[in-house]
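Researcher: Here's a chain I'd like modeled. Treat it as a single chain, no partners, no ligands.
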Amino acid sequence: MNTRPAVTAPTHPPLVRSFHGQTLVDPHAWLRADNWREVMRDPSVLDADIRAFLEAENAAADAWLAPHADLRRTLVKEMRARIKEDDASVPATDGPYAYFTRFREGGQHPLICRRPAGAVAGETILLDGDALAEGKAYFQFGDAQQSPDHALYAWTADEAGSEYYTLRIRDIAAGTDLPDVVTETTGDVLWSADGRHIYYIRRDAEHRPSFVYRHLLGSDPANDVLIYEEPDKGFFVSLGRTQSGRFGLISCGDHDTSEVWLLDLHAPLAPPVRVEPREPGLRYGVEHHPSLGGVESLIIETNADEAEDFKIVTAPLASPGRASWRDLVPHKPGRLLLSQSAFRDHLVRLEREDGLPRIVVRALKDGSEHVVAFAEEAYALGFDPGYGFDKTEIRFTYSSMTTPSEVWDYDVESRARVLRKRQEVPSGHDPARYVTRRLMAPAPDGELIPVSLLFARETPLDGTAPCLLYGYGAYGISIPASFSTSRLSLVDRGFVYAIAHIRGGTEKGWRWYREGKLAKKTNSFTDFIAAGEHLVAEKIVAPDRIVAHGGSAGGMLMGAVANMRPELFAGIVAEVPFVDVLNTMLDDTLPLTPPEWPEWGNPITDAEAFATIRAYSPYDNVAAKDYPAIFALAGLTDPRVTYWEPAKWVARLREMKTDSRPLLLRTNMEAGHGGAAGRFDRLEETAMVYAFALAMAGAATGL
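Model: Modeled as a single isolated chain. Structure tokens:
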């Protein structure tokens, strides 16, 4: 059933423009609200015609989904039964207290808590997410940090989904917030060592994080001091802190270049100090050591000197620039350094080689190293340095597509591991019932694409199984082969769940990213298609039962493969999809456009980039042909992928496509890029997606 909206879109003239001697016609440009900045703050000011269009599409999507209401309820019940509702994180000790989050039974939002270090009782609830969210259509915590003396708690929250966070400071003893309130921040929070100052970031008029301010406790935020202003509209700014606690970090960068400034947290009135001036293509990150070889030093991971997969260097704090950099951990092609943390006696780094992550511990006194790794074919590994500099204990998380998440404390000297938590699945989970595999799919140019698989052991791999094939492939982001309780609802119904680790990510090193961006972006699309074809050729899945799934930049992937190989897919799910690539990259007033030019190219100034993007941009390449069934999801207050991108794409598909398969657009009118904020509300959205996938693959009951 191809349910269409009951309301016909109003007639508007197309937007016609010329670039590089080429005419660009946009028939649905009217869906872009001229007052989009105001809509981010207050969705009620959305233009009436646009609202009517979105609500009509929502009504049509709801009508299509209505016959699957029982299935959706069943899915939500299953997924919720796998969630430990009163779950809690493993406490992280910071001085006299251990901080943690937990949920109450039936609660949607976390409670942020602490108790005395080493104790199992004496909990204090610092922030009650459920109470703070009461009566609000949307609520999401941002960053939160205790003051150095543990008397105050700085916290941020977004109440519209637009990523404008309000900063507040809680008096822990009183249980109330101080009068100091700062609106429209990015959510980043950083305390000075004396606990009298807080650093935070404001956005510019185009929603870009650009200004770092210092706030004196008890003063009027209107008088806060601007300590850093980013001059380049293509650079975003964030805040961090070295493990030693000595320095705050102002990190500036785009997808290609970075620059770091040091904030001396013990001298909060001192100006920031730049480590190394920005240079196109140079990326680096900074750690600090008070006495490395007897010299106060910085420990820097960088791609300098053609170290594409990064190396680690050191430099004296007194002369931190590149001229002083000396190799500590040399570059090794194919071994991508992901992150590092410096402790008094050890340097701990997370790296990836041959598609698998591992933790490497280096003794600073003699340079000896040992590795923390695992034997499964595909797994996810995370590293949390926690609080403190003098300690020998770190924390890591491990999971695979069959193994629930585990939290381990690890002593880097004794190498003893202590299991602190294993994810509970209240309805039961037997890892032996499932299989994780890693395949290599040949791409058209001979590259081998890693594909992670999860399926039930009893699922026949004879070419009859339905498949959900997930992909992303952008910004160097790798998709971990981690555990998910939700996807078991597909796997238990006979699906093969597959992740295609396509170019544009960094699963096989920085080259893997470089080969999937700019002029080589189409490699991401052909890799994904190759993964689907390989699963069919190997008779793992059925040729007519593959549902593709991707979100954000992965939603662009969905739009591209829908245009390129529509017959390969029974259905496509595109969540907050970046599908209007050319028009967005031509609009330098949008939040992400200048920072995105190093990823996609700048079609305003570069005729070749214009031609390249125009050739694959999903919206611009919709044609008069049959398409798979498509389900697009959007968020009205999304500042990353604006709501009008999927809206325009669906409008054009309705005009052009020649089939009668379902075409659905569902816009969350009260959320942004991440969808619903509450943990159970998110299950409702997942159930919609899974019901669609089951229906399109012919695996939904009652169809």
